[in-house]
Amino acid sequence: MNLKYKRVLLKLSGESLSGKIGHGIDFDTVVKICEPIKKIVDMGCEVAIVVGGGNFWRGRSSGSMDRTRADHMGMLATVINALGVADGLEQVGLDVRVQTAIAMQEVAEPYIRNRAVRHLEKGRVVVFGCGTGNPYFSTDTGAALRGAEIDAEVILKATMVDGVYDSDPKKNPNAKKYDHLTYMEILNQNLQVMDMTAASFCNDRGIPFLVFSIEDPENIVRAVCGENVGTVITKE
Asked: 162, 157, 123, 158: which is closest to 45 by C-alpha?
């Protein structure tokens, strides 16, 4: 197979790292996800990763909790996941760097755009933690921002469903799956595939966004090689 994309930003949800356990990190699952990443790096693809934190923390535990503090807790959850993914990548033989938007130099590099790009050029995988480093922004927006900053050719969002549907396929057996959508359709139909900030950002910058299932981790290889494995979202 031949690469369609030379540099990609892969967004991994926290839930994808928990496997059948349903919470925390299942390292067997992490390694299974890392194996196809090793394959595409060996093929010459430059890979950056943004991780979510939903397997440890998702939003405020109550309506009275301070939103900024809750979001900071979520950012710390993404660092746990970033370190776990880095360990899995190293287990399969990859050279990895973790960078965080909030400084914690004892465990990771601070995010510096030029340094991240240089790591990619040297064949290292870069894992970004802490989202954008700001409250009120999701890790989807963090993925969009980092994708733009490193000049990624596509953002790959690995989820627990095989694409974008017009309704929840787990609740509606007649839900329609889309092969292609535009960002304006995402915004106008309020499709819950990414937050609206991320959709507007990607639309403004013309960055394609591919949503696919991580339940078969080999879909990562298929996606990078341009196979039809999910839903492609583009500006037009």
From this structure: 123
CB atoms within 10 A of CB 95: 12
* Other CB atoms within 10 Å distance of the CB of residue 31: 16
Closest CA to 157 of 60, 15, 56, 57: 15
pLDDT score at 59: 76
HSE, side-chain direction, 13 A CA sphere, residue 129: 28
Q: What does the pLDDT look like over 37-88, one tens digit per residue?
A: 999 999 999 999 999 999 999 876 667 899 999 999 999 999 999 999 999 9
Cβ atoms of 78 and 131 within 8 Å: the answer is yes
For range 103-115, the mean pLDDT: 97
Element at 35 (helix H, strand E): helix 27-42
Tokens 């929840």 sit on residue? 168
pLDDT computed for residue 61 by the predictor: 65
What integer pLDDT is reported at residue 95 of this predicted model?
98
DSSP β-ladder status, 154-159 and 209-213: parallel
Confirm if 54 and 24 have CB atoms less than 8 A apart. no
DSSP code of residue 95:
-
CA distance 54 to 78: 8
Instruction: Report yes or no: 170 and 182 within 8 Å, Cβ to Cβ.
Output: no
Average the pLDDT over 154-172 and give the result: 91
